[in-house]
Amino acid sequence: MTPDLEYRHLKTGTLIWDEDALGWDGEIELPLERIVLTPIPEVSEVSPRRERERMLTVTIRGVIDDDVRLETPTSSQRHALDYFFDHLVEIENAVADALVVPMEQRLTEVVELTRKQSEKKARDLEERIERFSLHGPKGVRQRAQPTSLMILPHEHEATAFYQLGVDCAWDARHGTAILFWKGRILAISNYTFFDESPEELKELLENRQRTGEIRYYI
Question: 29 and 54 in contact (C-beta within 8 Å)?
Fold first, then answer.
């Protein structure tokens, strides 16, 4: 039996082993102000939502290659979870900046699709986007909300890689997965969580350190 994990950031006191999640699983209330995840007018199928608690499903991945199970989370995983909560504002700012690219790409795609049907409707949509400030980090903050955090079993310099799942009004079906090492975003994907090998994760980190660029899989 894999032991439950007592953790200082979890108000209920424990992360419980979850067979389906293949790791220690629980919910944490984010200590940040609430946000409203609102739809992009005539762009997204997301329904308007009232303010909701910023609850984050946290999983510390406990299964690695060949179904090897970790009896307890590693010190690198614990350090990554500590880092995340100790640097929430820094991480949220990085997310708001990085998600501008997929959000604005989606808006551009919708405008161009609309233009094929009607130039007037396309102009109306462009005006609506401007009126609702549907661009830049401000637009991201109004229409994106972190929902899941997974601490991966692989590490670099004693800190594990982790991924943040975000609900996005501009891609309600898939959402967005963001791969981090410490406060540095390495890659962003619209369709799936990251399940790279340790070598691939370190290559993404080296690319970020060398070029300063985030890999976008969108």
Answer: yes
Domain ranges within the chain, ordered by starting residue: 5-91+147-217
Across the strands, what pairs with 55?
29
Sole residue written with tokens 């985030």: 214
What would the DSSP string read from start to end of 56-124?
EEEEEE-EEGGGEEPSS--HHHHHHHHHHHHTHHHHHHHHHHHTHHHHHHHHHHHHHHHHHH-HHHHHH
Instruction: Look up the pTM and report it.
Output: 0.81
Q: Using the predicted structure, report yes or no on whether residue 23 has a pLDDT greater than 60.
A: yes
Contact 32, 92 (CB under 8 A): yes
Q: Which residue has the tokens 């303010």?
A: 51
- Position 199 pLDDT exceeds 80: yes
Using alpha carbons, select from 64, 83, 85 the residue that is nearest to residue 73: 64
- At residue 210, the pLDDT reads 95
pLDDT above 90: residue 32:
no
Cα distance between residue 126 and residue 134, in whole Å: 10
Q: What is the mean pLDDT of the chain?
A: 79
Contact call for residues 148 and 173 (beta carbons, < 8 A): no
Mind giving me the DSSP string for 7-24? -TT-TTSEEEEETTTTEE
**H/E run at residue 188:** strand 184-189
Q: Is it the case that residue 201 has pLDDT exceeding 90?
A: yes
